[in-house]
From TrEMBL, chains A, B, C:
InterPro entries: Gly_transporter (IPR005115). GO terms for cellular component: plasma membrane. The keyword Cell membrane applies. Keywords: Cell membrane, Membrane, Transmembrane, Transmembrane helix. The chain crosses the membrane at residues 6-27, 34-54, 66-86, 119-140, 152-170. This is Putative membrane protein.
């Protein structure tokens, strides 16, 4: 698969699963269909909008191309009509969020590299792209952003973006670097939840 | 009335009523006069700042021209001194918010069209301009943004911006298109509250 | 001391103390080490990122230079390992926050003047730079931003930025104007807390 095609797929996938996660949070709060759409779109496009603003690429892709809003809206409508099917997954918001996290970390890092940021800045921007949607979703739902209280969350995004940037610098072909990095980030996140990995906490005082 | 004059009036009006709504929320939380000013200014200018950042028009109008901060501050001071008069309105925050919503949806859409966005992007940016101030106000007051839990809120903004863009494309003169679209959006929002319109919600699971 | 060196010191100091304040809030909420880092970095760099975006200076300094993220991360690590030493200060979050507030108000105002904003816009941008980090920190921790409910908070930032801009316009040398303005803003903030200064509140209705 060519790299541009792979990244188009990753970006669409990330927007859709983040959109689903936002919609499921909205449904849990019993918002109406338009509230669901607003939260699914905000969650689906917030990371990419932040990325584009930080890169100086305004207006952001979400306003100049049709697909981000359309894909995120489709996720909202899908969640509305198939709520109980989605709820049959084990912790659906966590699952969708984990996939979006890994995908956007790598895709955000790539766009930052294309815009000329050096690798460290690009890794950080990938991480911001990945955690941005979830922060907007959780804050709008007046919940503490899970990036703060979940172990191995921003760390998984960081690992994904860093793996991609380092692999690329080491001469790994782009599609292999991207696929591997996404898999690593998503696996890290899911494994940490499943296996209950804990990062160090400060001692109680 | 010329279109530029009409839009100047609309922008000043929107900034003032959003400023009032922010101030009334601050007063309800018993913040001091400077807290009231911060929330009235944040609510009054946040939508326009977001609009300008997304259009790549930085520094935003609120920092390069005098009036947005001045008008929003004036709204804060007005609310401080005339609290009980404003509270005599039925649900003053909702009322001010509805007027600002309709005004900014259309004014934001127009600025986006002037910056060369295509109609769909411009409608979405008009909606973001309209709902941005209220989201900032509600999140800063740690309330769930009403764009999520109020029926017919983002939908009213969307309808206003879309009506304006479509009317313009259909050859309706600009002042007529703008006035009609603002009236439509504000009426939709107020009617939905007054008549208790409900949008569909997902079935309880 | 040369002005560029002074401002480098001020920016590093502000980033570090805001980073500490974010970390201490994260520790109070018992987040893990990566959650602490995310909140210390977000708090340390949010004000400057907002400043740069509003000035049209994207990508912001925090992504193109190494030090802001490094300094804010160092603050997070420091808080993690020296929690009880920091807690021996009287109200450490308030103290760190006050220093960052004064420093960033003046440094933000200076950068805005360098980018050609007129003095009033530059003072406002200085204030936004100063209060931005604390707003992000408090909202992410689902607390009401202290800029809203603490007396003499945004006012102290405003006073610092305004003193700097006015002194500069009056011909005061830059290092003297900056040092005096920072001292004034920090003192105002700390004195208001220590002496319990109250700004007017609206009468109870």
């Amino acid at each position: 698969m060519s790299a541009p095609l792979l990244f188009t797929i990753l970006n669409v996938l990330g927007t859709f699963v983040f959109g689903l996660s936002g919609a499921m949070v909205a449904i849990r709060h019993r918002f109406d269909i338009f509230g669901i759409l607003v939260l699914s779109v905000a969650t689906g496009v917030a990371g990419g909008m932040t990325r584009d603003l930080l890169l100086g690429a305004a207006p952001p892709e979400a306003l100049t191309t049709f697909w981000p809003m359309a894909v995120a809206s489709l996720a909202g409508v899908t969640a509305f009509f198939f709520t109980s099917a989605i709820e049959r997954f084990n912790r659906p918001v966590m699952l969708m969020d984990a996939v979006g996290l890994g995908v956007f970390a790598v895709a955000g890092c790539r766009k930052a590299l294309q815009f000329g940021l050096d690798p460290l800045g690009a890794i950080l921007l990938g991480m911001i792209t990945a955690i941005g949607g979830g922060i907007v979703r959780d804050i709008m739902a007046t919940e503490t952003p899970r990036v703060l209280h979940e172990d191995v969350y921003a760390l998984a995004a960081f690992a994904g973006a860093a793996t991609y940037a380092v692999a690329l610098a080491a001469g790994v072909p782009e599609t292999a670097a991207a696929s591997g990095a996404v898999l690593l980030a998503v696996s890290l996140r899911l494994a940490s939840v499943r296996l209950g990995w804990k990062l160090p906490r400060p001692p109680r005082s």
